[in-house]
Structures are given as structure tokens and as C-alpha cells.
Amino acid sequence: MVLKINKEYSGFKLLRQEEVKDINSTALIFEHVKSGARLFKLQNDDDNKVFSIGFRTPPENSMGIPHIIEHSVLCGSRKFPVKDPFVELMKGSLNTFLNAMTFPDKTMYPVASKNEKDFFNLMDVYLDSVLYPDLHNTPEILMQEGWHYELNDPNGEIEYKGVVYNEMQGAFSYPEAIISRKVEESLFPDTPYYFESGGDPNVIPQLTQEQFSAFHKKYYHPSNSYIFLYGNEDIEKELKFIDENYLKDFDRINVDSSIPSQKPFTKMNEMEIKYPIAQDEDDKDKTFFGLNFVTGEAVDRELYYAMDILSYILIGTPASPLKKALIDAGLGKDVYGEFVNSIKQPTFSVVVKNSNIDQKERFKKVFYDTLQSLVKDGIDKKLIEASINIYEFKLREADFEGLPKGLLYGIRCMDSWLYDGDPVMHLKYDETFKKIREGAKNRYFEDLIEKYFINNTHASLITLIPQKGLLEEKTAKTKEKLKNYKASLSKDEINALVANTQNLKKRQSTPETKEDIEKIPLLKLEDINKQAEVIPSEIKKINNTEVLFQDIFTNGIVYLNILFNTKGVKQQDLMYIPLLADVLTKVSTKNLTYEELSKQININTGGIRFEVEVFEEKGKPDAYLPKLTLKSRALTGSIPELIDLIDEIVNSSKFDDKKRLREIIRENRSQFEMILFDAGHSVAAKRLMSFYSITGRYVEELTGISYYKFLSNLEKNFDSMADSIVEGLKKVSKSIFNLNNVLVSVTSSKEDYPKAEEGLKEFLDTLNSEQLSYYEYSFDFPVKSEGLLTQGNVQYAAMGYNFIKLGYSYSGKMKVLKKILASDFLWNRIRVLGGAYGCMANMDNSGNVCLVSYRDPNLKETLDVYRDTANYLAAFNVSEREMTKYIIGTVSDLDYPLTPAMKGERATAYYLKKTTQEDVQKERDEVLSTTPQDISSFKDLLNDVMKQNYICVLGNEEKIKKNSNIFDRLTKVFE
């Protein structure tokens, strides 16, 4: 297919065409002549097609309008007048990606699918949603997705409710998020970046319907749009569809969405912010410092990558000199940072965590002194080489953990396109990296440090200070404000509020009409592949060691995983297994300091890491295989170096550097705290399983709150425990790294396997092979329900049990049940009616059931919804079309595209769980044959599971204490 420059295709004029060899694509840049819409296509042979439409949406205040509109356009439109087309697509399309995203200056609506018919259906719904949404005429949409006054009874208390309101309450719950969200406010006071595009919960309730509607009318026009396409679809067919169905009806207008640049500061801006800790929490070592710098423009193609690499050099590795200097100075217990290049003027930030207010000036001094010495003496050349190598490896590998490549390229192109730059700019990285490598031979990175950090006054210092009782104070203020507001209302106005609340709930609870539902396009079951994907895997042997080999095209990369059985570790030493995983690759070895080791890993490989894994045998809830897995990747030509490094780490790591151990323990405790706030639902679900399952208890001890408490204790009592920590690591390492414990998995092409085998033979010969004793672990289960207390504003509520323990057996039809619960029952009751940001259902073939909410303002009400699941199923009766939708949505989950690394791991899991290809196919057959009667038949199972009353809620201390009668135990997460 050859298109001609300046020729029109379905109203689109082709402005430019060029090959982008770096990502094996042809770039085609169009403009829609009538509407002014911009369109960029990356044409290639990837069948995972991507469409995205984005708009430049600079916020004008912190009411969160861009974010609330992102939610709201997907709540009904001209052609698709149902209340939630997004959920209908989630239920019943073959999408490989379906979401929407709010950035500080743009809003994007991407979808992806491998099925052509499905791809055009998704495009149709998304285009109609953004250009013709119902939000202008339906005030309940803003009430539901943004905020509203909730009053169920004239004599009751008014509350703020709304999905985005609660989402942002959660987002502002923890110090790392607060300091991160304040960076742009501190650096760009005269631009839209000063405002919080996601919405500040204190300001969101000021938003009116008129402001909300006006923002959409102003910015959501094709003349302000950026349309991105990727993949192997026929471009002329795509252009014709977009023009004929949408763009031909719009005339070009002038949309003023320009984003001004911030004038540089003449001196650093300093900000102090308070964040809440509990009344009885110690405020020592709880202060955060963040130094932030504006670093050029996003349209500077070289700086875009160079500053990211410099960020990695300075703070991203164990060998990073700035991180090391700040930790060595005893300024804090963890140091992290980031380079943000997805805004007009990119920023670099470094944060010291768990410090004290009297360290502020010293923090600045150590920061600048360290950078001055790097400029004067030069950065270690090996560290520079290592950082460039690992960055380039990841770019070439393009492993986005299953996310479509096109999605990431679409987001990356916006980093220049949105600011009137060339959309291809940041996709052509080969040339850029050549320049950076060439420059690095001289003083390239030292000059960047001097220009953008040492001599740059366009900077800010944010100090985040803990304050006891601040959350209670804010909660009381909000209650008082709402109480005063209610007191100011007349009786009629109060009745009107009650009526509004009831009208919203009525709308939310009213089923869609058959006519409206059927307007959402749907595939047929015949469009679906009936056969489950086969991952090629064969069992080979190296002497007596089993090797699973997956013959998959990997573009010259070998994925090598070595799984060590950990059953040789005594029960009292179990928590040293995850500590060992945390420590390996970060401590020195016999021949390499930990800094040298880090550099060698990044120069020669795509990464080496250790992970605690547990594989539960299907159908046997308490039969599990615990593993410590070494995961690595390298180019085929670097296998000898990879094997040497694995040998060095496994056989020669030194655990007696106590200063280094303390640093690693502190860093890992700090990282766990971020997980607690960001992924509280998974923490709660894991803890829940530990109340009734041996497997669940093992997993929680090694990766959950129990392990966090273990780390906290080690840190607190390090001086008295240091010797036992060293001994514990040595003992556990010896019990694990034994030839009798080994299973190997190699994923590569057939041609590359012999090189991997040769290296593996050498490594396996180095392992100790003496016979080991293996242990069975016994746990007690003292509680059935627990409240985990934090200073967060929202809850993560989990409830469940194991149905196999109750005498039920697994069926693939449960996959459909899970889809129905997550996208219908729980979605409507927990998110739509309850105002939580999210809700999930999980059921696995080991028998575990878990229902869990995310950023949820409720607690008891959510648990009551879970208990009502059986009643919902008893009444479940849908049309054949609806059932087809749920089945298609389930198949979409089953067929989530896997990268080569993920395929290797899936094959390994099947092997260890004793899952055959016949089992996989049987599960798919059961999914495809599911009927409404099958779904309804699970009512007794869900009823019996919920009757067990196993509960775990992570959340707001005050809220949990008010409901303390629900729990056997209340546990403070932070001491």
C-alpha cells in the first residue's frame, strides 16, 4: 500500500510519511481538512491494534474537571444511551486494553483489540462518547462520577459522595503521593500545571454542572484532538470509518488550549506541607524532603532520554552516587526520585524519606556538595555505560508486561506532539542514543548536572511534615462545614436534597432497556477462537535437573528463570526468605562490591532479580510449592556473562556488611509502605486468605503485613539483632541454593537454547548437592476477621473463603461468574451506588473466593453487599445476548496477550500446578458453554462462602473503630 503526500484519503490529507526502523513501523501523519483533527498512524504487522483519541485539557482550577469528564464521557452518549457503555465493553468485548487516562495537561481514551470487528466497535463507542456525551443533559452523571451532597433522610447528616471524590481522597492519603502531587504546583505557579487535574478533594465540591459542561464544550472538539492508530489494520479503512461516522460533521474552529511555559525562577521556591499521622504514632523520622528542578523542554529529543538516564545514574541503582551520599549522611531511611517527561517542561525530583525537620539545610548541602564533586571528579564511566545499556535494552525489548506496545508508543508520541512537536521524535531513539553514547565519552552528563541542577534556580524544595490528629481535624472540619450548610437550608431545600439523592439512586438502580443495551455493538460466539492457546513447553534434563524449555521467538533475548524449592528452610526462619530475595544483587560478593555488581548486571544483562513465589496445586487448597525464583534476561551473546553473574550472586554473596543490610531493610520497608497505600486491596485480600488457608498464611507471612512488621522490627532493633540477621541470611541461603532444589525454565528460540544449556551446566555444577531435610509447616488460625488501622481516608474491604473446603469443586464457568460479579453486581452496588473507586472478584481453581473493594468510602455497607451476592445469583436470569456478552468478556481475559517472558512463566506455573493443556482447554470449553442457569446455580456456593464470615478491612482508623464489633482483632499497621 503506497499513499501519496498531500493527497486526501476520506477527508484526511497525508502530510508526511517515514520509516521508523527502531520500532519496525511506518509513520503516517495526517490532518483532517474539514475538522482540523490531527491523526498519526504507526503502520506495522502487529495484530494487537490500538486506537486512541486525546485532547489537550489544561486545568483552570483544582476541581478535577478533566478527571471527572474522563469518567463521565463514558457514561452514555448519542448512539449509545446506556448509563455505562464502558462497562458494557468491559463485560463483552475482546479488548486487550480498555481505559481512559487523565494527565496534568491532556486526557486520553485508548482501546486495543486483536479482532478487527471488535476494534471498530471499540473505536465507534469511544468516538461517540467523547464527541457526543450525555453529560450535558444528565446532571446525575456529575453527581455520580464527580461529587454530590448525599442526604437520604431529612433528619440525617449530609455527606460528600462521588467516585472521583473518593478516588482522590485515596490518592491524597499517603505522604509519597502528596509530595509527588505538589511538585508541579511548586514549580509552575503561573501555568495550568499549578492546578491538580485529578482534583483536590477539598476543592472538588465547588464544581458546578455549568463549569463541568463548559469545559467539555471548550476542549472536546476535533480541532483540539490527537488521534493515534497503531497496528496492521488497513489505514484507508480506518480513515474512512472515522471521517464518515464522525469528523465529517465538524468544522474547524480555533480552540485556545495552549499551555504557556513557566518563566524561570530567580531563586528556589520553598514549600511546607503537613500530612496526617495517628495521635499515638511517633513523629520522629517521619519528615520528607523533596528537591525538584525544571529541566528543559519535552520537545528536546536528546534531553528527553538523557535526563531519564541521568536520573537512573544518580538515584536508580545501588551504585548511584547521589542516593548513596544522602543515605550515608544519615539524612533519611530511603531515597527515591523520578524524571517526569510527559509534561511541557519536564521535571527531576529527588525525595529523602523518613528524615527530621532539623535536617533540611544539611539535606541541601549534601545534595549540592555531592553534585559538585561529580562535576569536578567525573561520574564513573562504568556506571554511565551500565545505565545507558539497561535503558536501551528495555527500549529494544519493548516488554510492557502484556500492555499493547502501541499503547505505550501512543502515550510517548504525545510527549512531543501535544506541544506542537514532531510525534515521531521520541520513537526514533537509535540516533539519540548514539549521540548520548558519544557525548558520554566526554563530560556529557556532568554538563547536564551543572546546567540543570547546580546552576538552576528554577527549582523547589518541598518539606512534608507529620502532624498528629490532622486527619481527625480535617474530618471534623468537613462535618462542621456540612452541618452548617444544612443549617442554612430551608425545609424545602433539604427536601430537594433528599429528592436529588433519591433520583440519583433511582437512575443508578433502573435497569437499561433492551433496546438501548442492544445498541452497544457485540461480537458473536462464532467470532471467538474455540481453541485455547498452546504455549510450547518441553521437559529437558541437564544431568538430573529438569529444564522447562519454551521455544518462542524472543528477538535474540534469552529469559532464564531458576526456581529453588524453599521447603528446606525451618519454620522459624521463613521470613528470612523474602529478606534474602531483597538483599541478593544489592550486597557485595566475593569478587565484586555491590556497586560493581550493579554495574555489571546492567552492562551485561536486562536484569537479575529474586522473587518469592508460591504455586498452589489445582483443586488442592493446602498443597503448595514454595519457591525462591531467580529471574533473568540477556541477549544470547551475553549468556556467559549472565551465568558468571548468577554464579557470583548465588554462591558468593556476603551478608556481613551490617551497614548495607540496615540500608536495604529500611529501603524495603519504605517501599512496602507505598504498596500498602497504592495497592491496599491486594494487601487486604492476602491477609484475608491467611485466616483460613495454610497456603494463604505462608504467602502472607512472606509477602504481606506480617513481613512488613518483621522488617519494621529488624529496623527498630537492628543494633541488637544484626548478628542474628547475618546468621539467618547465611543459614537460609545454604538451605535454598542446593542442586536438589532446582527447576530451570528457559524461554528462547530453539537456535539459542544450546548456548543457555552450556552456561547452565557450568552453573549447576557449582551448587552444593548434599541431601536436605524438607519441612512441613503448621500454622494456627486465631482470627476470622481483622481491621487494619491506617491514617488513610478510604477502605479496602475484603471478604471470602475457600469453596473446596466446603465441598464444592472448581469449574471454568466460575470465570464467567467472576466477570459478572465484577462488571455487574459489584460494579453497580460498590462503585455506582457506593461511590468506591473500584471493586474486584476473584475465584481460582484452588478454591479461593475473594471479593474486595478499592478506595471505598464505606465499610459495613460494602460487607452487606458481599453477603447479598447469593440473592443476586438466585434471581440471575439474562437473555442469550447478555450471556454471550459475559462469555466474550471472559474470553478476552483468558486471551490477554502475553510477552515471551510471561509465556515462559505461565508454562512454568502450569507445570508446577499440574495443569495440562487438556485442563486449559476444558476450562475454555466450560466458559464457552456457560448458561444463566449455571451462574444461578452458584448461589449456594457463594452463600456458604459468605456465611463463614472471614473479613479483612484495611482503612481509616476512626471508621474501623466505629465498626469494631465486626472484627475479632484490630491491628495498627504503623507503629
Characterize the structure shown.
- It is a single chain.
- This protein folds into four domains: 8-258, 2-Layer Sandwich (Cytochrome Bc1 Complex, Chain A, domain 1); 269-403 and 411-466, Metalloenzyme, LuxS/M16 peptidase-like (Cytochrome Bc1 Complex, Chain A, domain 1, 2-Layer Sandwich), CATH 3.30.830.10; 543-766, Cytochrome Bc1 Complex, Chain A, domain 1; 785-972, Cytochrome Bc1 Complex, Chain A, domain 1 (2-Layer Sandwich), CATH 3.30.830.10.
- 44% of the residues lie in helices and 19% in strands.
- Helix 12 packs parallel to helix 20 (594-604).
List the helices and strands and how they pair.
Elements (H helix, E strand, L loop, with lengths): L7 E2 L2 E9 L4 E8 L5 E6 L5 E8 L8 H8 L12 H8 L2 E4 L2 E2 L3 E8 L2 H16 L7 H7 L2 E3 L8 E3 L1 H9 L3 H13 L21 H11 L5 E7 L3 H11 L23 E9 L9 E8 L6 H15 L5 H8 L5 E7 L6 E9 L4 H18 L3 H17 L7 H13 L11 H12 L3 H11 L4 E10 L1 H18 L3 H19 L4 H4 L20 E5 L2 E7 L5 E9 L10 H8 L10 H11 L3 E9 L7 E12 L3 H14 L5 H21 L1 H10 L4 H10 L1 H12 L1 H19 L5 E7 L4 H14 L18 E6 L5 E7 L10 H20 L5 E6 L4 E7 L5 H8 L1 H6 L5 H15 L5 H14 L3 H12 L3 H5 L2 H9 L3 E6 H6 L6 E4 L3
Parallel strand pairs: 4-11, 12-16, 18-22, 23-27, 23-28
Antiparallel strand pairs: 1-2, 2-3, 3-4, 5-8, 5-11, 6-8, 7-8, 9-10, 13-15, 13-16, 14-15, 17-18, 19-21, 19-22, 20-21, 24-26, 24-27, 25-26
